[in-house]
Amino acid sequence: MVNLISGTAPPSTPVRGLKGVVLIVACALVLVPFLAVLSTSLADQQQITSSGGYVLFPHDPSFAAYEAIFRGGVVTRATIVSVLLTVVGSGLSIVVVVSIAYSLSRPGTWGQRPLLFIVLFTLLFSAGIIPNYLLIKELGLIDSYWALILPGLTSAFQIIIVRAFFLDVPAEIIDAARIDGANELQILTRVMLPLSKAVVAVVGLFSAVGYWNAYFNAILYINSPEKWPLQLVLRTYVVDNTQVGGDLPGEVMPPQQSLQMAILVVSLVPICLVYPFLQKHFAKGVVLGAVKG
Amino acid sequence: MTLVLQRKTVARSNQRTQKTLSGRQRFRRDRFLLLIGLPGILLLVLFHYVPLLGNVIAFKDYAPYLGITEAPWAGLDNFRVIVDGDPDFVNALVNTLVISFVQLVLVFPVPIALALLLNSLLSERLKRVAQSILYLPHFMSWVIVVAIFQHMLGNAGLYNTWARAHDLPLLTIIGNPDLFIPLITSQVIWKDAGWSTIIFLAAMSRVDTQLYESVAVDGGGRWRQLWHVTLPAIRPVIVLLLILRLGDVLSVGFEQIFLQQGPVGLDASEVLDTYVYNRGIVGGNWGVAAAVGLVKGLIGTILVLGANKVAHLFGERGVYSKW
């Protein structure tokens, strides 16, 4: 059979075989760890003892580990903290990014070039750990959740992507809305946003992933362990291997490995849920950022 | 990624600028629009520009109880660690450069090879499935990635328990200072090699298929197509990303390395960013840490700007263009 696109015969069998092997190995390297994590979180003590620690296929899946971590202890609290940080952070981030992008998206407005420069210039430097810490301290935000939310609200990259979409909205539509008596805010919420739902959703999801995954800002700014987000709890129990203890004395706990892997699963499930959407749209976003121009 | 302020846009805005209006008239006309953006811009300035002022403590003998303004001036004393070559600082600098170099050589080519492989797949469906799987780790936090590596490859991890049961050689990569660089390098590849293929695949997808046909007409096989069409097509992207990577040579995965410093020790794992944290926020040497951070930031910015200049010289667009 001749390959229609390139006009040459398909590769020979050894080449195809080699490619297949490389591809399968690459995919297995990604999938097997996730499978082991998930399966171990569902395994019971007996199977974990007999397999020496980790299982790839649970005989008799049990949710005991999940019940244990969601009984209202450290992990439960951290999950709630992380969910709230993520929802509030990405919600506010959408508002901020969209409003900046919109105000810089109308050709020929006053002060646009210097303002745009201020936004773009942030891509070239970052102040560093110490100055950022001092700012949060001077603002009195140490140990406050706002220290984890506010600094991440304004991303120049996201502003540029949203602005690029707004720029592509035909000026006639905006003019028409204005003739109908709409003010700037109404044009933004009733005309621009409905037209750019997809990009706004993607930008929101990306900042949601950022908020969900952040851990170092909490190490820097949060002193009270009860305010820890999930990633820090994950670090303590799963990376540093601190014993996952029962919060109630004398309680029989599921095996450590199952508990650890269950915490890990909880921290990666939200990402997996939004992943199909991210993948579909963001591949476009990267290409847009790179290619447009 | 490349963030080009679009020329098209600028052209359009120039053309639409109403020359008949004075600055004040335009300000009056646009004031509501500007008002919408104002809170966001203020936040951006507060969290990106205002912290730069904090660098002043690089020239002070700062202590938290004194506060920034009360702390006595220290001249350039804090920069002595850099000039005199304090052993801890030199260790961090050397580690940073070595890790950067190793990752440039080992990490950079992987997504190119992977993209070529994906691009050569005849089945569109297979390609999409493989992409979906390979992109996934990019979205996992470093805590998750490090946790997974420890539990797969650690002493009591999945591989070693299995190898012990079957009398196979054990892996001692986790917590081993000698293998720290291979470990973090493989983590970077595992996490981001798939995702990094996107930009190369995008470049490959824009190749005119007639070029492949003409190679075929001239009697060239798939290797010739690869060599004479595909690789030249992605060369600009390769050059650009390589130059950008060079501009970023002083930054190596801070979050990733920070998580794993405990077991391997600072000799093997201290890099400039962790040095700033450990020396300043943990060790209380605020001024010194700020000085090192400031110098690193300045050199980093100069390198990025320089890299961009070089990209222009190579005829590429760079991260930003003149506009």
Automatic annotation (TrEMBL), chain A:
<protein>
    <submittedName>
        <fullName>Carbohydrate ABC transporter permease</fullName>
    </submittedName>
</protein>
<comment type="similarity">
    <text>Belongs to the binding-protein-dependent transport system permease family.</text>
</comment>
<feature type="transmembrane region" description="Helical">
    <location>
        <begin position="145"/>
        <end position="166"/>
    </location>
</feature>
<keyword id="KW-0472">Membrane</keyword>
<feature type="transmembrane region" description="Helical">
    <location>
        <begin position="259"/>
        <end position="278"/>
    </location>
</feature>
<keyword id="KW-1133">Transmembrane helix</keyword>
<keyword id="KW-0813">Transport</keyword>
<keyword id="KW-1003">Cell membrane</keyword>
<dbReference type="GO" id="GO:0055085">
    <property type="term" value="P:transmembrane transport"/>
</dbReference>
<feature type="domain" description="ABC transmembrane type-1">
    <location>
        <begin position="79"/>
        <end position="274"/>
    </location>
</feature>
<dbReference type="Pfam" id="PF00528">
    <property type="entry name" value="BPD_transp_1"/>
</dbReference>
<feature type="transmembrane region" description="Helical">
    <location>
        <begin position="80"/>
        <end position="102"/>
    </location>
</feature>
<dbReference type="InterPro" id="IPR000515">
    <property type="entry name" value="MetI-like"/>
</dbReference>
<feature type="transmembrane region" description="Helical">
    <location>
        <begin position="21"/>
        <end position="43"/>
    </location>
</feature>
<dbReference type="InterPro" id="IPR035906">
    <property type="entry name" value="MetI-like_sf"/>
</dbReference>
<feature type="transmembrane region" description="Helical">
    <location>
        <begin position="198"/>
        <end position="222"/>
    </location>
</feature>
<keyword id="KW-0812">Transmembrane</keyword>
<feature type="transmembrane region" description="Helical">
    <location>
        <begin position="114"/>
        <end position="133"/>
    </location>
</feature>
<dbReference type="GO" id="GO:0005886">
    <property type="term" value="C:plasma membrane"/>
</dbReference>
